[in-house]
Design brief:
- The chain is of the alpha/beta class and about 140 residues long.
- About 45% of the residues lie in helices and about 20% in strands.
- The chain is built from five helices and five strands.
- The chain has a five-stranded parallel sheet, with helices on both faces.
- Helix 5 links the parallel strand 4 and strand 5.
- Helix 4 packs across helix 5.
């Protein structure tokens, strides 16, 4: 592994996944970068978007993403592993696929359920979509 992608949403499950990814990275004999990705769901419809300046929407998404990354950034500051953080807007599986291709990620580590999960689901919908849409190894952390 050279690049590990970790989608995070600010949940405890995402933080556990990040900790596992850092452990994987530390076990490598070569440098391994952890790419921490928060994807904000587009909350504004095209019709409503005409009432907001694009800069206002982008600032809103970035602020929300930064809040979701707070726990991750606090943890990453305590470990000696190269990492990068990103905030994007869209659908998690689609953005994750883009990052796997663009950043050369050869492994994904993620929680089984995030903040939006319905209690009782065996596996969250985001994890399921990523499992079925990407051709790289995916490690799910409970």
């Amino acid at each position: 592994m050279k690049n590990i992608l970790v989608p995070v949403d600010g949940s405890d499950a995402a933080l556990r996944a990040l900790k596992a990814a850092v452990q994987f990275a530390q076990q490598q004999s070569h440098e391994c970068t952890v790419h921490v990705l928060n994807v904000q769901a587009p909350v504004i419809t095209n019709n409503a978007a005409r009432f907001f300046a694009p800069e206002v929407l982008q600032s809103y998404y970035q602020d929300e993403g930064n809040v979701a990354l707070e726990k991750s950034n606090a943890y990453l500051a305590t470990v000696d592993v190269p990492y990068k953080t990103y905030v994007e807007v869209g659908h998690v599986a689609e953005i994750a696929k883009k990052y796997v291709e663009q950043k050369g990620c050869d492994h994904i580590v993620m929680g089984t359920r995030g903040l939006g999960a319905v209690p009782g689901l065996l596996l969250g919908s985001v994890a399921t979509k990523i499992l079925h849409s990407l051709d790289v190894p995916v490690t799910l952390i409970k």
